[in-house]
Amino acid sequence: MDKIAETVEAVDSDLQSIGIEGVGENVKEIGYSVLNFKQYLKEQLPSLMGFGLKVVLAILAFFVGRKLIKWLLKVLRTSLEKANIDKGVVQFACSLSKIVLYALLVFNISTSFGVKESSVAALLGTAGVTIGLALQGGLANVAGGIMLLLFKPFQVGDYIIQDSQNGCEGTVAKIETCYTTLLSVDNKHIIIPNGTLSNSTIINVTARDMRKLEIKIGISYSSDVSKAKKILERLLMEDPDTQADEDMMVFVDELAQSSVIVGLRVWVATDRYWPAKWRLNERIKEEFDAQGIEIPYNQLEVHVNRKQ
């Protein structure tokens, strides 16, 4: 420090000797600024080193804690699956536990490296109120997820239809903290907020093992209704997915404007509903054509009356 001061004074006296005084004052100020900065670094070096060490230890603690959280979540998932807990409940519990564990990890790291618990609690309280006001929809989704798991209108693997204005449908793939994921028939991911899903009408297609299949066909008024009904009964008895149903019904549903509506109702296994429906539609068309049963279509007849 004394050497720097002597050097500054020497430079200043040399500049004065050659008639340059203003520059000497500037040099003196710069020299003392450098001296003060060096002294400040020397005094603050232990504090800076201590702060840097805390930052490094906090980062290491975070990575170790993250590994531990992954292991705990894996243990939790395995335990719940072994207890035959519903898959949706397992997904929701793991998702919520992940959020809670990471919050505890950050809290513990903060308090372990010098931050006061009261300060952290006050910060969390303020942040909680702010986030709660900003994310009201997110909290509604969490509450909706809890409602879905509590009342179980559907489970993972069920095929559901959300009956609303912009309704969608698909197989339930995941039920998480805020969102439920569906897979459509063409393998598209459909993400629905739990709050929206819990407040809408849900049609669970696969909730039961059996579904009632109903098909209605219009035949012309000139066709033999009894013959058409016998064809439908025979097709039901021959079909592999419907022949076991003793309560099958074939009926005349309506005398419409341009056709007689005949139909059938039969119980089929839920997972065979669509194959049975598509196959029966094809067989009915083929048999009606072969047996001369006419299936009318919309047409317009024009009669021209020519006056003499």
Shape field:
elongated
Instruction: Give the N-terminus to C-terminus distance in angstroms.
Output: 132 Å
Counting helices, strands and paired strands, the structural category is alpha+beta
Level of helix content?
55-70%
Sequence stretches where pLDDT stays below 50 over 5 or more residues:
none
Number of strands: 8
Secondary structure: elements and pairs:
Elements: H1 2-17, H2 22-82, H3 87-112, H4 117-134, H5 136-151, E1 159-163, E2 169-175, E3 179-183, E4 189-193, H6 194-198, E5 201-204, E6 210-219, H7 225-238, E7 249-255, E8 260-269, H8 273-290
Antiparallel strand pairs: 1-2, 1-5, 2-3, 3-4, 6-8, 7-8
Helix pairs in contact: 1-2, 2-3, 7-8
Tell me what you see in this structure.
The protein is α+β, with helices and mostly antiparallel strands. It contains eight helices and eight strands; from the N terminus they run H-H-H-H-H-E-E-E-E-H-E-E-H-E-E-H. It has helices at 2-17, 22-82, 87-112, 117-134, 136-151, 194-198, 225-238, 273-290, and strands spanning 159-163, 169-175, 179-183, 189-193, 201-204, 210-219, 249-255, 260-269. The strands form two sheets. The protein has a five-stranded antiparallel sheet with strand order 4-3-2-1-5. Strands 6-8-7 form a three-stranded antiparallel sheet, covered by helices on one side. Helix 1 runs antiparallel to helix 2 and helix 2 (22-82) packs antiparallel against helix 3. The chain starts with a helix and ends in an 18-residue tail after the last helix. The mean pLDDT is 78.
